[in-house]
Amino acid sequence: MEYGQYIEMEKAFANLSYQGVYLIDLPDDRIIYHSNSPVLWPGFSDEDWERPASYIFQHAVPDEEIILFDRMADTLRSSYSMVKKEIHNQFVVTFNFHINNGNRLTAVNLKLTMIDSNEESRLLLGLISPPVESDNASIIAGDRGAGHYYRYNPRTGVWEAQNVAPLSENELTMLRLSMQGYSMESISKLMRRSLDTVRFYRKQVFNKLNVKNISEAISYAFHYGMI
């Protein structure tokens, strides 16, 4: 597979994002491209980046979370084999884990989706950013917009199906307008609802999605295809 066009696109995207951007060849276990972003793996040389992707993870992730990384890799290989090629880029695996950053652990979130595939190769786009839902290590997999997802339970070794929390039309409208940058006062006028009612919608969204602020709510809703 030729990587040139994809690397140029990833470089352009990385210029617009604070997230760490990665291009990974799954069967070859290679990181083809990694951006220079604030969310970086610590202490790796250019020579290290030429090593297998699994080497990077195993030397940066705490030992107790390596088993989750192994499960994530297995999930990627099996899931992309089962998912129809036409919807590969809608299937996302999300991995919350920690990076050994000197004397402290940094919680991060890695999202992976396929951008190209053939009989010999599967090319993944990866984005690393602060975690959306919690600091706990976890893996979530699913088809964006399907209304449900699967969370891996490391204690039982079972993938547990979970439904995406349903939001009312008013709650979704409030969330879409917040995503567009409107303040609560402006949303109140646009929705023709009292400010207290709009704040109630926001509180309900936080409770249903189990998030702490509007940024987390927007990220959650977008990730699961709700908006």
For the structure shown, list the relevant keywords.
227 residues; alpha+beta; Beta-Lactamase; Arc Repressor Mutant, subunit A; 2 domains; 38% helix; globular
First-to-last CA distance? 34 Å
Q: Quaternary state, please?
A: single chain
Query: SSE order in H/E notation?
Result: HEEHHHEEEEEEHHHH
Got a strand count? 8
Q: What's the mean pLDDT score?
A: 78
- Low-pLDDT parts are none
| Strand arrangement across the biggest beta sheet | 2-1-5-4-3-6-7-8
What is the count of helical runs?
8
Find the structural class using helix and strand composition: alpha+beta
Q: What fraction strand?
A: 25-35%
Please describe what this structure looks like.
By secondary structure, the chain is an alpha+beta fold. Helix content is 38%, strand content 27%. The chain contains eight helices and eight strands; from the N terminus they run αββαααββββββαααα. It has an eight-stranded antiparallel beta sheet with strand order 2-1-5-4-3-6-7-8, with helices on both faces. Helix 5 crosses helix 7 and helix 5 packs across helix 8. The chain starts with a helix and ends with a helix. The model has no long low-confidence stretch (mean pLDDT 78).
